[in-house]
Write a structure and sequence with these properties.
CATH architecture: Alpha-Beta Barrel
Strand content: 15-25%
Oligomer: single chain
Helix content: 40-55%
Distance between the termini: 41 Å
Largest sheet: 3 strands, parallel
CATH class: Alpha Beta
Radius of gyration: 15 Å
Number of domains: 1
Low-confidence stretches: none
Order of helices and strands: HHEHHEEEHEH
CATH topology: TIM Barrel
CATH superfamily: Divalent-metal-dependent TIM barrel enzymes
Length: about 140
């Protein structure tokens, strides 16, 4: 795919996303390796990583990215309702989760473009901006 993009001089970037199901390709380590091997970018979905690992770990994820020389990320974030198989559905993001993520990003050296995937992304984004301004 990268060769076709280059050949056609398209101005697009492939950015496979971290996945939430353990049976799927898409761990952060797998995507870092893929990016190194193919020159693609990747998308960090913090909710998917949480579903896969069973816990919030924003500082650890950001540290792993920094250790791999990543300075800028495109990421997705929202509240998620989980089942034993992974993500069930997106829900409004609790304020404490937003604050934890934004605090971790602020403390890291990584520049992040955060896309909100909640059912009401505008409402969640406004709430996120208010939390960010209070950090």
């Amino acid at each position: 795919m990268q060769e076709i993009i280059k050949k056609n001089k398209w101005h697009v970037s492939l950015a496979p996303e971290t996945t939430c199901k353990r049976s799927q390709f898409g761990t952060l380590k797998e995507l870092l390796k893929l990016a190194k091997e193919t020159g693609c970018f990747f998308t960090v979905d913090f909710a998917h990583i949480e579903a896969r690992q069973g816990k919030e770990n924003y500082p650890e994820v950001l540290q792993e990215l920094e250790e791999n020389g990543i300075k800028k990320i495109h990421c997705h974030f929202s509240g998620i309702e989980y089942s034993e198989k992974g993500e069930r559905r997106h829900v409004i993001t609790p304020s404490d989760k937003i604050k934890k993520l934004l605090t971790a990003i602020e403390k890291s050296k990584i520049q992040a473009n955060v896309i909100n995937e909640a059912p009401s992304p505008v409402q969640d984004s406004i709430k996120s901006l208010k939390i960010l301004h209070n950090l």
